[in-house]
Amino acid sequence: MADSDVISPVTGTVWKQQCAEGQQVTEGDTLFILESMKMEIPVEAPASGTVSRLAVAEGASVDEDQVLCVIAS
């Protein structure tokens, strides 16, 4: 099966990281909470699997469409 990239929907800051490399996740689990314009935006897992790579850390600035992490199915 293919890996799934978890993409930032907005430009903002990683306010909370709620996943770790090697962690099993289920589709719909909240992986990150981004802060943009004083709003909190949850980013959910698009598929079930294992977080194989984290591309950002808590406190990092991110751009819209930037890869936050990769989930291996």
UniProtKB/TrEMBL annotation:
Domain Lipoyl-binding: 1-72
Keyword Zinc among record annotations: no
InterPro entries xref list: Biotin_Carboxyl_Carrier/Decarb, Biotin_lipoyl, Single_hybrid_motif
Keywords (A to Z) from UniProt: Biotin
Entry-linked PROSITE patterns: BIOTINYL_LIPOYL
Domain of life: Bacteria
Pfam family, one: Biotin_lipoyl
Protein name from the UniProt record: Biotin/lipoyl-binding carrier protein
